Amino acid sequence: MPRAPKNPESTPTVRAKRSRRATDNQAAPIASILVTEQEISKLAYRIYESRGGNGGSPLDDWLEAERQLSGR
Question: Structure pTM?
Answer without folding.
Answer: 0.53
